[in-house]
Design a protein that fits this description.
The chain is mainly α. Helix content is 56%, strand content 5%. The longest helix is centred in the last third of the chain and has 59 residues.
Length: 537
């Protein structure tokens, strides 16, 4: 995960172990997808088993040319690569900084699809790219079995892009990713985001804290802690008090009570994570020992002596089988002692978390202490400083060995409590959903019944209305016929127009014919016109 060293091949070990890729996360670079680039570089390193340290960083003072990546070697040389905007540019960055790094054609294609997906504008297009990447891996089920790391990356990417109404599916994808790679911080953060989207903020806080604990980069931790406070405020509710990290106790979980003894051990184990040794740097163990080179000689020598010891050596089969894993163990021990004894600050998990899976007991720790005594003599370290070193190492025994299993019990108690709380919240959530569905069903049924009643009432009203009778012959109005009361005069005879053939009636034309307001039924005419002659009836 981010900031941690990934497993790699011996051919690139010495070169890559000393390389750090720091991706600028300042405002201008962020506008050019630098957060996505950080994830791309991190996942590229993990899938390619490239041993480089990947982390976010503040402004690199190359604004306007971003996104920018600083390549830093152990020798102090630093080089800023500008405008890492394409997949080819990112790929070249790896090949130039970590010799021997290479990906298979399938891994490269999947990495390219993820790179493109994170820069698509529409969620639908991003999801299509994810499904295409699963296809490259032989399908979803095959990817889970054969390529768990790549599958977990794709599951998180899919969970982040599922839309409204698909929160449960997003949570399922995120949880599957966290099971495939439990130590990957982004999977835990995706679980937290999905839980928060479902309104389960208290569970989201627990998952978010787990993600922060798995994140080694100081820059990432600062950003995540700000987001954690906002999430804790949501969990507290509208009228609740704001949650503060310092009030959470050693476990980081406000719902878990931790015994005072376990609390002191946990907090002691966390001190080395964020602090250098107190006091004057010139008087520190690191400075008096001679700095980095003597410290490396001492630590590397101790592990070499333990590895070849007939009694202690076989125990390394549990946690350092290969030369690569043994080298990584040496390097991480040097990193921790640097921060503990006054050198450069250490960034990483506390002593208990980093040794919990090794099952180190007092007998094995005694063997290690014996080898430290030997190496201090071989390096001719003076007695006063040797005594301080042995005393400091002895104080590290409680969180590493966990006498009586105190810390393990507290961790199991915390996990059991969180699991029980989560199950209870899920049960209540499902009950609430079922009740909401029942209420919605009843409301719809009532609405449908009311609508049916209204339709029935309308039909009944239509049936009660009287039917309209068809009009009779008496109701039909005949066209008006002009009445002739008096016989026409001679002058009128000449003004009568000649009717059309077959015509049997005619109107007498006058200068000012009277207006007929309404048509009236009149008696049969007294005269008929036959050609130019008017005959009286």
């Amino acid at each position: 995960h981010c900031g941690q060293v990934a497993d790699g091949r011996p051919s690139s070990l010495d070169r890559a172990m000393s390389v750090t890729l720091a991706v600028c996360q300042a405002a201008k670079c962020s506008q050019k997808c630098s957060p996505a680039l950080l994830r791309d570089i991190e996942e590229f390193a993990i899938c390619g088993k490239i041993q480089v340290k990947v982390e976010g960083t503040s402004c690199l003072n190359h604004c306007g040319n971003g996104p920018n990546v600083e390549v830093a070697g152990k020798d102090g040389q630093r080089n800023v690569v500008n405008a890492v905007l394409t997949f080819k540019t990112m790929e070249k960055l790896f090949y130039d900084s970590a010799q021997g790094a290479e990906l298979s054609d399938t891994q490269r294609k999947v990495a390219q699809l993820k790179f493109e997906a994170r820069r698509e504008k529409l969620p639908e297009t991003r999801l299509a790219k994810v499904e295409e990447a699963f296809g490259c891996l032989g399908g979803f089920e095959r990817a889970l079995k054969k390529n768990p790391k790549s599958a977990s990356h794709l599951l998180v990417l899919r969970a982040q892009n599922l839309g409204k109404g698909e929160e449960e599916a997003a949570l399922k994808d995120a949880e599957s990713a966290s099971k495939l790679v439990p130590s990957w911080a982004q999977a835990q953060l995706a679980v937290a985001a999905a839980l928060s989207a479902l309104g389960r903020h208290a569970d989201a806080v627990v998952a978010f804290q787990a993600g922060i604990e798995l994140t080694a980069s100081a820059q990432d931790k600062r950003l995540l802690n700000k987001a954690l406070k906002a999430l804790q405020d949501k969990a507290a509710g509208p009228g609740g008090k704001k949650s503060k990290q310092k009030d959470l106790g050693a476990s980081g979980d406000p719902r878990v009570e931790v015994s005072p003894e376990a609390t002191s051990l946990l907090r002691w184990g966390e001190e080395g994570v964020v602090k250098k040794s107190a006091g004057d740097p010139e008087k520190s163990i690191y400075k008096r020992l001679g700095g980095e080179e003597p410290l490396e000689k001492m630590v590397f020598g101790v592990y070499d002596l333990m590895r070849v010891d007939p009694e202690l050596g076989p125990f390394f089969e549990r946690f350092a089988k290969t030369p690569e894993t043994l080298t990584r163990l040496k390097v991480r021990t040097v990193d921790y002692l640097n921060g503990e004894w006054g050198g450069r600050p250490y960034e990483g998990p506390n002593l208990f978390e980093s040794h919990a899976s090794m099952l180190i007991d007092d007998w094995l720790y005694d063997g290690m202490m014996h080898m430290y005594h030997k190496m201090l003599k071989l390096l001719h370290v003076d007695k006063v400083l040797s005594a301080e070193i042995i005393d400091s190492l002895e104080k590290m025994r409680p969180p590493i060995v966990d006498p009586g299993g105190i810390l393990l019990k507290e961790m199991e108690k915390k996990l059991a409590k969180a699991s029980a709380d989560r199950k209870e919240r899920m049960r209540l959530h499902m009950l609430k959903k079922a009740q909401e569905a029942q209420d919605a069903k009843e409301a719809q049924e009532a609405k449908d019944a009311k609508k049916a009643q209204q339709e029935a009432a309308k039909q009944q009203a239509v049936k009660k209305q009287p039917k309209k009778k068809e009009g009779t012959s008496a109701d039909k109005k005949e066209p008006p016929v002009a009445a002739e009361e008096d016989a026409p005069t001679a002058s009128a005879k000449t003004s009568v127009p000649v009717p059309e053939p077959n015509s049997v009636t005619s109107s007498v034309e006058t200068a000012d014919p009277p207006e007929v307001a309404e048509p009236v039924v009149v008696a049969p005419p007294k005269y008929i016109c036959v050609g130019p002659v008017i005959i009286s009836l």
